[in-house]
Automatic annotation (TrEMBL):
Binding site for substrate: 19, 99
Cofactor (UniProt): Mg(2+)
Organism: Nothoprocta pentlandii
Signal peptide residues on this chain, from the entry's feature table: none
InterPro entries: HAD-like_sf, HAD_hydro_PyrdxlP_Pase-like, HAD_sf, Pase_PHOSPHO-typ
Family label: Belongs to the HAD-like hydrolase superfamily. PHOSPHO family.
Protein name: PHOP2 phosphatase
Domain of life: Eukaryota
UniProt binding sites for Mg(2+): 8, 10, 179
Length: 241
């Protein structure tokens, strides 16, 4: 029996938002106000498509993007945590469910040397066109009213677990590590023996806390973290049991 670790990416594995970090490539390191103001709630991926098109129009190409993205800092203690997970892959399966994109995540994990730690990465597919523009698509389609149009993390997690079950694998415990509002939907799916680890001071912690105040708390246990060291301490206890 194994444990499943589910990680968000932005503000969890990295200490920034990869989608806003790429703006460092833009002329003057900022976007025109009409582009910035074109975002509509729930349609972030469409907005990022316009941002990437603007970067392409501005002559920003793959090498410059890659150079910028690999400089993004990991969250405190995350390198040690991922190294620890890598040493214990016999007991820990590990996936990412993120609203970033395949290109950014691949670049950052490869540069940091942690690509092999993760069994699968679920995110918005991105690719370069023949003219050197980076394009991004929605991760999938779903019917969840609570989630942005391009990604319901709960649906991804459920489908992953169903696929594993078909292969004869199930997990002793799921540990969900994230920070954002879109991490709440999968956390509400977790069961009594599972654990949600929201990052201290971020939206997920506040939303879980609000549910408790509304007398509809999540079924799983909740353990707040502020650095990878705290997550690693918990995993060490888990593996000792």
């Amino acid at each position: 029996m194994k444990f499943l670790l589910v990680f968000d990416f932005d503000h969890t594995i990295i200490d920034e938002n990869s989608d806003t970090w790429i703006v460092k490539c833009a002329p003057g390191k900022k976007l025109p106000s009409e582009l910035r103001n074109s975002y509509r709630p729930g349609h972030w991926t469409d907005y990022m498509g316009r941002v990437l098109a603007y970067l392409g129009d501005s002559g920003v190409r793959e090498e410059e993007m890659r150079r910028t993205m690999v400089a993004v800092p990991l969250t405190a203690g995350m390198a040690d945590l991922l190294a620890f997970i890598g040493e214990n892959k016999g007991l820990l399966d590990c996936i990412i469910i993120s609203d970033s994109n395949t290109v950014f995540i691949d670049w950052i994990l490869e540069a940091a040397g942690f690509h092999k730690v993760f069994d699968e990465v679920f995110t918005n597919p991105a690719a370069f066109t023949s003219t050197g523009y980076l394009t991004v698509q929605n991760c999938h389609t779903h019917h969840c009213a609570k989630c942005p149009k391009n990604l319901c993390k709960r649906k991804v997690l459920e489908e992953f677990l169903d696929k594993k079950l078909e292969q004869g694998a199930s997990y002793t415990q799921i540990v969900y590590i994230g920070d954002g509002g879109n991490d709440l939907c999968p956390v509400t799916f977790l069961k009594k023996g599972d654990i949600a680890m929201p990052r201290q001071g971020y939206a997920l912690e506040k939303k879980i806390s609000q549910l408790s105040q509304d007398l509809s708390p999540v079924a799983c246990s909740v353990l707040v973290w502020s650095s990878g060291a705290e997550i690693m301490s918990y995993l060490k206890l888990l593996l000792k049991e």
